[in-house]
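Lab meeting minutes (informal)
Scribe: AK
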Amino acid sequence: MIEQAFLEAADSLFANFKNKEEIVSAVKSMQFSANIVMRRVEIMSNDIHLQLRTDSDNCVYFSLQLDESTDVVDTSQMTVFVRMVFNDFTITEDLLKFIPLKGHTTG
């Protein structure tokens, strides 16, 4: 299932690339067992966490934006975004966290 999704995505994403067949072949040779996928997701998660930590340590100013939404099973959740300004006046905005809120909503 995961492999098929990757193959379909690769077919669309790399349609105009000269080395499309090479890319699709590499995707076909990837291992997609549950443990491997879980480990890769964990590695990416740790990398994103480290990047956010480094950015937050280096930023001059920051602001938080909070947004409340409801998922498909009527569970409220708060989304926290952070916007950071650096010494060179570059600005980044990233998703910081999803926080499930207690209780359910109906609408």
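Next up, CB showed the second protein from the same session:
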Amino acid sequence: MTTTIQYILLIFLLSLAAPATPAAETPREGAGKIIRLNEIEVLDPEAAQTDAEESLSGILNEIKILDLKTARQIALSANPSLAAARDRVVQASERVMQARSAYFPKIDAGASGARIWRSDTQLAALGDPDDPEDTFTADLKATWTLFDGFARKFRNLSARYGEQESREADTDARRLLLAAVAAGYYNGQLAREDIAIAKADETFNMRQAHEAKAREAAGTGSLSDVLNFKVQVNSARTRLLLAQQEYEAAMIGLAGLLGIPDSRFPGHITLAELSDETPEEMTLPDTENLIRYARTHRPDVRQDEYALRRAASDVGEARSGFYPTVRLAGSVDGERTDNMGFDGDDIGGALTMTFDFNLFEGGYTRARVREALARKSETQNTLKDTRIAVTAQVRDAAEVLKLARDQLVLQRASVKLVRQNRDLVEKEYQAGQASLVRLNEAQRDLTQTRSRLVLALVSLRRAWENLRAATGEILTDVENISERKS
């Protein structure tokens, strides 16, 4: 090795050993504030959160009527629990990169310098050495694993399947979030319809109270009728206050699901009107087809399938302990006293191949294999249990949907009959042919039947969303909010 090569090698070693100079902070568009630590970019969480809150605030300012689809899109973009699930996916992806690094050689560089003061005894034994003496060393080492019983292969497979597990877990979190948003949204719509029903009841009784007062003044009515209708007005107002409280609670819960920081919508936002049922909503799906779809599309089922594959890979990694390990290593070392002027006489090297084969370790490897096999069996049983649970959820949701549809048909017919009856009783009361008690009953029946109709309609919508969540189909028609804005 020539002196020039030796100096180049030394400079290379020292440059590797020198500490890295932290770079200045550099911004990245759309990603918040970026802090660079030893050449590694790290997202500043506080700045990122501020940017996200400002973006969400801008979106909410553009919305006047919040429909279910938009609510879901906002939740997918801003809900912090979903952001945490995405972070877990990133962690799993980085574990894949860590496992893949085992296929590459490991290269290490080192350098040191020391000043040595020797004792009088050492000086006497060495003759006439320099005291103190400066010693400098530098080395470059490379190690490459050629064979490890396929442990690297199975670790990579395990990491990849673990990454897929995290992705499916993220998808399942989205499925559950979408179902929760739908439930919260329909709770809000139900409460708002109850507000409208209570207001209509209040208006009806106020009109009756006004007419009763006019009849009393004309001498054809009684004070008890006036007082009765005033009591009914107060009862309607009580129901109105309760419905308004339910609406506020539903909106607070929905805002929390959407990731709004203070769990409160701006005052200008209102929910979309509760529309009537469609023919498609009144048509029952084929349960068996839904079950087959759920078994192949539910993310929690796929998550358990990847967990089973990962467990099988762990068995292979455990069995790698029965095989030898072959490594190739090379090193270049330099050592010099007094100064750092390395030359050819100061530099040496070595090339080594090692073969390691464990003969006995107290049954450790066999125990690892048995543990991995037991974990695989556990995962198989977990997968079976998940499939059974999914099947049960789909069947139950389908039965609830059928019941909700039948109830809606009955309530829709009942409202027509009860409204017609109330109108007839009202005319009879005004003509003096029906009692006040009969009118109160007819109005109360109408109010209750209208409330049951709204509840039946909302129950039908909830049942559809629960069924779609049970099958995983709820994930198919959701766009990303960024695509919507573009």
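CB comment: The chain has one domain: 3-485.
No objections, moving on.
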